């Protein structure tokens, strides 16, 4: 296996992992349609009055920038893998010609 | 002699009963500053690109309520704008900035009840449409809000976890919507991310201690 081929494969695998990881995190934390939140809200009920009240706790909810950023990074990695393929093809052709 | 004693006992009983009735039926002033931190307002803005959920707990004010005459209810509820928060700290800073709520110049949002309509009472619960002046960022607008008032007699001690404390509770719930353009909150701007309609849910309880 040529080094360029293994780099290309690594970039493509990394692109797939980034895409799956960011989308997976976004979906797993509730597919929030907004920016990432670092505080989550838990609803409690007051026994005497029956009122519902929110209690804020540190908690991570991935926002839309997660899948968007993941898709952008995956596209960059895929693009790099194409560049590596072209460069390796060009160097092979020049080696055969010489 | 026996008749005289019976008459005195009867008079005493009537006097005590009348005193108790007048104590229960008299208008009471409920203080909505909540030491337990339960009182809250939740707000929701559902724009095409972003849903914003937030809460506020800095509530104060008072309401005068008479269980025997709920239509005479009056009062003012005040919300500290600095207590309003959302799950994203950066967004919370934007919310409090001069562009939006301008917390530094307008530290309070208030609602002053002027009149009650469509009043209906069932048991200890009164439903009514409360008309009053809502003041946000220095702009006052008359709004009508459907409100539920629940009178909880002798429940103050239970709420505070101290049976020696005597008093009543008034629980107020309301759900209504306002338009942000009505109060000068960046009218017409960024409507794809910040909805024009603000959904508000008010869940508060006031206390009227008895000596």
Structural account:
The complex is a heterodimer of chains A (98) and B (211). Chain A is 60% helix and 19% strand. Chain A is an alpha+beta fold. Chain A has one domain (3-97). In chain A, strands 1-2 form a two-stranded antiparallel ribbon. In chain A, strand 1 (37-45) and strand 2 (52-61) form a beta hairpin. In chain A, helix 1 runs antiparallel to helix 2. The radius of gyration of chain A is 23 Å and the shape is rod-shaped. The two termini of chain A are 23 Å apart. The model of chain A has no long low-confidence stretch (mean pLDDT 86). By secondary structure, chain B is α+β, with helices and mostly antiparallel strands. Chain B has a single domain (27-210), classed as Beta Barrel (Lipocalin), CATH 2.40.128. Helix content of chain B is 18%, strand content 48%. Chain B has three helices and eleven strands; from the N terminus they run H-E-E-E-E-E-E-H-E-E-E-H-E-E. Chain B has helices at residues 2-25, 89-96, 156-160, and strands spanning 28-31, 40-46, 51-56, 59-65, 74-80, 85-86, 108-122, 125-136, 139-152, 166-179, 197-210. In chain B, strand 4 (59-65) and strand 5 form a beta hairpin. Chain B is elongated, with a radius of gyration of 22 Å. Chain B starts with a helix and ends with a strand. The chains are: A alpha+beta (98), B alpha+beta (211). The A-B interface holds A 32-41, 46, 48-54, 56, 61, 63 and B 36-40, 42, 49-53, 55, 57, 85-91, 150, 152, 155, 158-159, 169, 171, 173, 203-205.
Kindly list the characteristics that best describe this protein.
heterodimer, A: 98 residues, alpha+beta, two-stranded antiparallel ribbon, 60% helix, rod-shaped, B: 211 residues, Lipocalin, 11-stranded antiparallel sheet, 11 strands, 48% strand, elongated
Task: Explain the layout of strands and helices.
The complex is a heterodimer of chains A (98) and B (211).
Chain A: H1 3-28, E1 37-45, E2 52-61, H2 65-97
Antiparallel strand pairs in A: 1-2
Helix pairs in contact in A: 1-2
Chain B: H1 2-25, E1 28-31, E2 40-46, E3 51-56, E4 59-65, E5 74-80, E6 85-86, H2 89-96, E7 108-122, E8 125-136, E9 139-152, H3 156-160, E10 166-179, E11 197-210
Antiparallel strand pairs in B: 1-4, 2-3, 2-11, 3-6, 4-5, 5-7, 7-8, 8-9, 9-10, 10-11
